[in-house]
User: Which sequence fits this backbone?
């Protein structure tokens, strides 16, 4: 038995019953806990189904299954309830971080501008009892900047004897999990070591922000609102970052769809509120994004930086060339008639399979590939823009793509706050602490023999 996206002949998650098409990892709803009845008793329970999985080669061990069962609204409401009922000394500060790719979903679903959707979501979360609501764009700034530096370093070090290229992005947890647990060597050495935006945000909240508020990391309960279910798995494997004193960076991940369902069923009065920043009492003035079509834009930003740093070329507009399909694009830089940079964007597992086949056959033409598990990018995450029967809501997705494209683009180099954090929090842009906090290592198992025989 396997889910429709399984990469193996057999899936390890053999918990399906005879009369079930999909199996959820159960989490009792708030109403099932007698002591937690109250204003949240109508809120829907969240379940993760096998068909929501994107990288499932033995991806959920029994231990992870138990932990994943906590990645839903029940755990969130449990902390809210304790804050209302228990002694103040036992209260935890609730912090929610919202991914930029989630906001177009709320804007489209509730027929609001993206700024109004952001304020409405923030106001709703605070009406529940959340203390701070952040935007993860600043974490993506760090992820992109570190990816830029790593690519330039790899490009300069690359040779036939020392194969530092291609560099494959590491921001998508579905892809990274697939690479680590299914493909293994020789793919994992090509994964960028820069942490994903969610991982960086965990360190920002539990380390930098905790210090600013004079709080131990364990006193903060950090929730991420994200477009896909694989972010839940990423939170489990987040590890314990430097300075967090055994506290996990992200305690709970809720998909955009789960939060929207809570909003629809809560019946709570909502006042709009501006999104907070990590810097004192200042508020976020505008919603911003990076230069990517439905993603955090690693390809565009790394390409511009590499063109300037390596070849002295200033690239304003990036010309994407569609290749095999609409989810496989190429970008090149020519100098004196020679292609000196060749980048690609590969979205969806059909395209991922194609690039891995070329890599293993040593016929790989690219220096850098932005890899995302979801076709059409993060906006199409299975945690949002889905119909009731589990298929992509194409009309809603098109609306979301239009909304996302209208959000102002922000270059990570232009952020004074990021530069301030490099100096104040990380002791410099190239310090050992910056390397420790912003980078990770990827574990590569021996690849599975039948991995590339699957028909997508």
Assistant:
């Amino acid at each position: 038995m396997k889910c429709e996206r399984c990469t193996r002949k057999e899936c390890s998650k053999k918990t399906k019953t005879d009369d079930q098409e999909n199996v959820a990892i159960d989490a009792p709803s708030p109403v099932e806990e007698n002591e937690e009845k109250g204003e949240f008793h109508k809120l829907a329970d969240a379940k993760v189904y096998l068909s929501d999985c994107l990288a499932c080669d033995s991806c959920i061990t029994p231990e992870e299954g138990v932990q994943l069962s906590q990645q839903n609204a029940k755990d969130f409401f449990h902390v809210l309830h304790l804050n209302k009922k228990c002694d103040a000394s036992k209260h935890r500060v609730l912090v929610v971080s919202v991914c930029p790719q989630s906001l177009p979903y709320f804007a489209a679903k509730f027929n609001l501008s993206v700024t109004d959707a952001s304020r409405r979501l923030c106001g709703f979360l605070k009406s529940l009892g959340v203390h701070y609501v952040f935007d993860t764009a600043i974490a993506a700034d760090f992820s992109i900047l570190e990816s830029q530096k790593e690519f330039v370093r790899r490009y300069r070090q690359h040779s036939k004897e020392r194969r530092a290229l291609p560099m494959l992005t590491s921001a998508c947890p579905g892809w990274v999990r697939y690479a680590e647990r299914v493909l293994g060597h020789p793919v994992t050495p090509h994964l960028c070591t820069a942490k994903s935006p969610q991982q960086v945000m965990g360190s920002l909240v539990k380390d930098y922000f905790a210090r600013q508020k004079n709080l131990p990391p364990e006193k903060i309960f950090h929730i991420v609102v994200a477009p896909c279910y694989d972010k839940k798995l990423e939170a489990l494997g987040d590890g314990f970052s430097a300075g967090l004193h055994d506290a996990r960076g992200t305690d709970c991940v809720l998909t955009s769809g789960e939060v929207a369902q809570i909003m629809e069923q809560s019946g709570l009065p909502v006042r709009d509120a501006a999104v907070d920043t990590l810097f004192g009492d200042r508020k976020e003035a505008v919603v911003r994004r990076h230069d990517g079509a439905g993603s955090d834009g690693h390809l565009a930003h790394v390409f511009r930086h590499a063109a300037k740093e390596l070849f002295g070329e200033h690239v304003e507009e990036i010309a994407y060339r569609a290749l095999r399909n609409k989810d496989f694009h190429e970008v090149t830089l020519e100098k004196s008639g020679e292609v000196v940079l060749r980048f690609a964007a590969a979205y969806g597992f059909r395209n991922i399979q194609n690039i891995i086949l070329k890599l293993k056959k040593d016929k790989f033409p690219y220096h850098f590939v932005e890899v995302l598990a979801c076709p059409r990018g993060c906006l199409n995450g299975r945690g949002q823009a889905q119909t009731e029967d589990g298929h992509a809501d194409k009309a809603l997705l098109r609306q979301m793509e239009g909304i996302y494209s209208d959000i102002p683009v922000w270059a990570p180099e232009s952020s004074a706050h990021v530069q301030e954090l490099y100096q104040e929090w990380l002791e410099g842009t190239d310090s050992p602490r910056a390397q420790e906090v912003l980078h990770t290592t990827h574990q590569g198992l021996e690849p599975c023999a039948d991995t590339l025989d699957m028909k997508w």
